Amino acid sequence: FLGRAVARAAPASASARPQCRRVRCAAKDAAWAPGNESPIHLDGTLAGDMGFDPLNLGEDPQNLAWYQQAELIHARFAMLAAAGAVAPSLFGSVVSWPGAGVEWYDMGTYDGYWCDTNTLLTVQFLFMGWAETRRFMDLKNPGAANADPLFDYSVSATDAIGYPGSAFNPMGYGKSGDELAALKLKEIKNGRLAMMMCVALYA
């Protein structure tokens, strides 16, 4: 017996029908290049986020966290370097110390410090190596550097990586979230300016 069965489905009720919603999405504008869209991974949550990542280097969240910390520490070093470059020539006539009045472009050959340049470089490598190792450990394992084995200080477990607070914030700045966000923005903006200044000095 050959037959053809025709099945008629009952009309679906209104409650069983899928609900359709109209959603309007707008990409975040890239502040560094008006008219361009910011990458998806730069959503404005990072301090100083201008939507600048033309090569999508921070597309991976782990890489983004690494680059953010790298920029922050380079910005802080650049601010110290920029101040150290101009301070001797600006204040050398007011305050006297070894190297006062020496222009920044002659500091590399100046030999009037308390020790020779090689010794200063060795000490710098040791201290910076210690600090960078601690920072690397905290980045890889958050909370690992909350207490130091050599120096008597402790970092609050609630402090964000790169912003230890506690012993490093004796004045208690940034108690509120808005104030802390504003200070982070000022720091990274001044740090970026200092990095450009260091590039100009090197050039």
Automatic annotation (TrEMBL):
Family matches, as InterPro entries: Chloro_AB-bd_pln (IPR001344), Chloroa_b-bind (IPR022796)
Listed GO MF terms: chlorophyll binding
Assigned keywords, A-Z: Chlorophyll, Chloroplast, Chromophore, Photosynthesis, Photosystem I, Photosystem II, Plastid, Thylakoid
PANTHER family membership: CHLOROPHYLL A/B BINDING PROTEIN
Record: residues binding chlorophyll a: E71, H74, K186, E187, N190, R192
Localisation: Plastid, Chloroplast thylakoid membrane
Example GO BP: photosynthesis, light harvesting
Similarity remark: Belongs to the light-harvesting chlorophyll a/b-binding (LHC) protein family.
Residues that, per the record, bind chlorophyll b: R76
Domain of life: Eukaryota
Main location: plastid
UniProt-recorded name of the protein: Chlorophyll a-b binding protein, chloroplastic
GO cellular component: chloroplast thylakoid membrane; photosystem I; photosystem II
Function, as annotated: The light-harvesting complex (LHC) functions as a light receptor, it captures and delivers excitation energy to photosystems with which it is closely associated.
